[in-house]
Amino acid sequence: MSDTFTVTATRWDKGWELHIDGVGVTQARKLSEADLMVRDLIARREGIDAENIEVHWTFDLGEELDSEIKAARAAVSDVERAQQEAAAKSRSVVAGLKAAGLAGNEVARVLGLSPQRISQLIGPTKRTSLLRSKSAGKR
Fold first, then answer.
1. How many other CB atoms are found less than 10 A from the CB of residue 85?
2. How far is the C-alpha of 98 from the C-alpha of 133, rounded, in Å?
3. 94 neighbors 118 (Cβ within 8 angstroms)
């Protein structure tokens, strides 16, 4: 079982000031050193094994940068969601084209995708069932 602590890292000219909720404040010259510094302080002050500490990080880089970071994260999230929706639509179209009797290479040509991408969209379970139904039909 781990104990969770929230740390707010604030940049200053000599490195990072690390505010640990309910514990205290420490510093690190580099952000790469911050986790070790935080865990060490928590372990000493709270009497917890450093390996049982879970750290939730927040960053305070000023209103303007924080706003830009939030916007960038939202944009990445929007792109990921759009990619998932596009893949779902592509899988649906591929399934429809296959159901209409088109071969994999024909589906690839119609959609302007590579045959390998069509195989990925069909997925291993659908590919396996298609292969089984083809081999059953040859008997």
1. 10
2. 13
3. yes
